[in-house]
Design brief:
This protein has helices spanning 15-27, 43-50, 69-79, 88-103, 106-111, 127-143, 157-171, 178-188, 191-202, and strands at 5-8, 32-35, 58-61, 64-67. It is α+β, with helices and mostly antiparallel strands. The protein has two domains: 5-81 and 195-202, 3-Layer(aba) Sandwich (Glutaredoxin), CATH 3.40.30.10; 82-190, Glutathione S-transferase Yfyf (Class Pi), Chain A, domain 2 (Up-down Bundle). β3 and β4 (64-67) form a beta hairpin. The N and C termini lie far apart (34 Å). Bound molecules: glutathione. Glutathione (GSH) binds at residues 9, 14, 16-17, 38, 43-44, 47, 55-57, 68-70, 212. Glutathione (GSH) binds next to α1, α2 and α3.
Length: 213
């Protein structure tokens, strides 16, 4: 069986693609990657040909096609259980915050899309976005444990889901409470994230003005 292939969107913009890419890296699973440029006339047909989900990321492995960032992370965790916390209570909380990010915070996504090539600069944030930012920080404070730099001590899928959030906070110069700032700095200092950012900067396929939540 060949290596799994992770199909992703443009690295500067595709926050959904970044999450499973990090999870596969942290799981130590070797994979090939294939980028499908977004926002082009041929994009829709390419995505629909790839999976019933019609979006990236998509993982192709052993005849299976897995779409959805969280489903791919779970596939990785079945092979590398250490990317969820080992304690059942903590694992349940990690899944809860991950699911909250997966399905929520639409206002933040809309107002502060991930764009790793964006100069760092604040924008005026509407009320709904401020509420999302406060809710994320409150959620982090509620679950964060003291042992280790990540949300649940060791790196977990929850951190994969919050890395694009930290990138949004950074590029939009969002003021954070001190503990949230330290956590975001940790995520943004991660070596695998840096590899993604460097590749994003090398990519020059993105039509100007396009943004993805
Ligand atoms: N829930 C999906 C969302 C994925 C998603 O929305 N991906 C965007 C790119 S970041 C996409 O493929 N959009 C389709 C398009 O641009 O036509 C997941 O978690 O994987």
């Amino acid at each position: 069986m060949g290596r799994p292939v992770l199909h992703i969107g443009n690295k500067p913009l595709s926050s959904w693609s970044l999450r499973p890419w990090l999870a596969l890296r942290k799981a130590g699973i070797a994979f090939d990657e294939h980028m499908i440029p977004l926002d082009r006339p041929e994009t829709r047909a390419a995505l629909e040909a790839l999976s019933p989900g019609g979006t990236v990321p998509v993982l192709e492995t052993g005849g299976e096609v897995i779409w959805d960032s969280l489903a791919i992370c779970e596939w990785a965790a079945e092979r590398a259980p250490q990317i969820w916390p080992s304690d059942p209570g903590m694992r349940a909380r990690a899944r809860a915050v991950t699911a909250s990010m997966h399905s929520g915070f639409a206002a933040l996504r809309r107002a502060c899309p991930m764009d790793l090539c964006r100069p760092v600069a604040p924008v005026a944030l509407d009320e709904a976005t401020c509420r999302d930012i406060a809710a994320i920080q409150a959620m982090w404070a509620a679950v964060r444990i003291d042992e280790g730099p990540f949300l649940f001590g060791q790196w977990s899928i929850a951190d994969a889901f919050f890395t694009p959030v930290a990138a949004r906070f950074y590029h939009f110069a969002v003021p954070l409470d001190p503990a949230a700032q330290i956590y975001c700095d940790t995520l943004l200092a991660d070596a695998d994230y840096h590899d993604w950012v460097e590749a994003a900067r090398r990519e020059n396929l993105v039509p100007p003005g396009h943004q993805h939540a």
